[in-house]
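Hello, quick one for you while I still have it in my head. Could you read through the record and tell me how the tokens relate to the sequence? No rush at all, and the record is pasted right below.
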Amino acid sequence: MSNTSDSEDQTPIDTSDPAIVARYEPYLRMLAKVQMRRALQAKIGESDIVQQTMLQAVQAIDQFRGTGEAEFRGWLRQILARHLCHLDRDFRRDKRDVRREQSMQQQLAKSSMRLEGLLAGDGPTPSQNVALGENVVRIAMAIEQLPETQREAIRLHYIEGMKLSEVAASMDKSSGAIAGLLHRGMKTLREQLGDA
């Protein structure tokens, strides 16, 4: 359930108030947007999936067995992965595929690691990793506040892991234009998060 970045982030989390789940909405929305198939995006928005994920998390919060924030994010990712796989199956009329759910969980974990490490730079120390892990929600919120083209370029390149040329093709722009969007977007993010 956890990855190397998450394992370093053991900031205790208080789940006695189920409202804690709402704090992770931007994080879940960013992950849902990254992992939803385009065909599924045309039929249902990531906000609907995130709301269902949060509702299930609130209803099952007493089943969370971890103690740290990283474990909580991993638990939320599992719930999100199940919802995405169930929706995908329902729209394609397939049977449940446990391997697809596990693959989805792995993809969400990778996207989460990219999101957490977005502003880390080269070779972050363990304490920097912890600080970034604690601020993952702030990072997701800051990305959502960027202009749409910067937000999309950052999501595709840094969170989905697409090459610059792939982002350019996806957004129907030149590689130079994408590089500019990424530069301006990252500069704005660093300023918003106090890392300038």
Q: What stands out?
A: The CA atoms of residues 167 and 173 lie 8 Å apart. The radius of gyration is 17 Å. The longest helix spans residues 69-92.
